Amino acid sequence: MRKNRFIVHVDMDAFFASVEQRDNPQYRGKPVIVGADPKSGLGRGVVSTCSYEARKFGIHSAMPISIAYRKCPQAIFLPVDYQKYVQVSGQIINIFKDFSPVVEQVSIDEAFLDISDTYKMYRFAYEACVVIKDRIKKEIGLTASVGLAPTKMTAKIASGLEKPDGLVEVKKENLLDFLWPLDVDVLWGVGSKTKALLNQMGIRIIGDLAKTGKAGLVSAFGKNGEWFWEMARGIDESEVETEREAKSISNETTFEKDRCNKSLIMSELASLCEQVSDRLREGNFKCRTITLKIRLEGFQTYTRSLTIHEPTNFSEVLIKTIRKLFEDFEVKDRKVRLVGVKASNLSAADEKYLFVDKEEIKKEKVHKAVDRIRQKFGSDSIHQASAQDIMGQR
Ligand code: TTP
Ligand code: MG
């Protein structure tokens, strides 16, 4: 029989805002909002996060900054100091590595640890979690919320239950009692559409799912249906992945004013393609799927994707694909508020593909040379001639 698993999920509390409160004692105990410049209520862009004091005013991540300003004009508004938070994140990950070599960083402030083989020096896995929290508090000066459970998904749910500064353990023998009363939308893969469908089928809590036949769930939701059925029985074999690969690379821009001039929008998209292409090459990736994101005035957001045959990290291929997606998207007379470009379906750039012709190899060399020039003289010093050509074809 498989040994007991002890999976830990750690999620820092109000991460960006807590770092700012740590570094500026005068902000402690006050509503702090990290994100776009509110410009006295006229600002564009969104809230990245806010302190728990600000949450009492109904403010949350991804809320337009203008609305946050309206709800709490007296709050302390701060810009995102991403570099600082990345550095703090690295220090926290180093602490985790003292507890287990099996650490999976999920985002800037979140990680899974598998402590099944290493917790014994603390006697109990729960005790190891207490020490993890203590060390983060003493050495980093921040609070974290921790979930401990036999499966990854349950550990993640548990860490969110008693935020901030929470610690929740779900024991193997209590797993189903813990899961069954919870709303189905806590499950990975259940978004608002799936939730509505499940509700139509009379399934509201995980316990309802457990009573539903596997075949019915699979016919309604395909592979996900199988996963829902397993989850409802506490079956989740997913492992903590030590070397998690980047799943996608994306860049986006919110315009200062909503735009309807198509050539200006396309020019911004071309520049985003260049940024994504740079980041792909920096990470030694190629992508096959390219996604255009458009947010119109009024906040309706659309995405359109194309998967190409040959993996690429060339900006001109990204631009050509995005251009096609943009032309096929009917903006009509509507104004555009935000555009984004995402590269996914990633593979290692070094992977050798059959039938790569000499022309491709030559292009690769040109791109590498352009990268070197950009590194030396700055990113605006040189643009792909072909990127300009594509722009010029309008
Ligand atoms: P979260 O862990 O989702 O949020 P949080 O740490 O601020 O608060 P909580 O106590 O609820 O965990 O995200 C971590 C950081 O990622 C957050 O501090 C800021 C950033 N972030 C954004 O920039 N935009 C977003 O929409 C979200 C959700 C997070
Ligand atoms: Mg967090």
- CATH-defined topology of the largest domain: Alpha-Beta Plaits
Decide which structural class fits the backbone.
alpha+beta
Q: Can you give the mean pLDDT?
A: 88
In percent terms, what proportion of residues is strand? 15-25%
Q: Output the number of helix runs.
A: 15
Question: What helical percentage do the residues reach?
Answer: 40-55%
Main sheet properties: 5 strands, mixed
Tell me the span between the first and last alpha carbons. Answer: 64 Å
Name given to the CATH homologous superfamily of the largest domain = Reverse transcriptase/Diguanylate cyclase domain
Shape: globular
Name of the CATH first level of the largest domain = Alpha Beta
Q: What is the total domain count?
A: 3
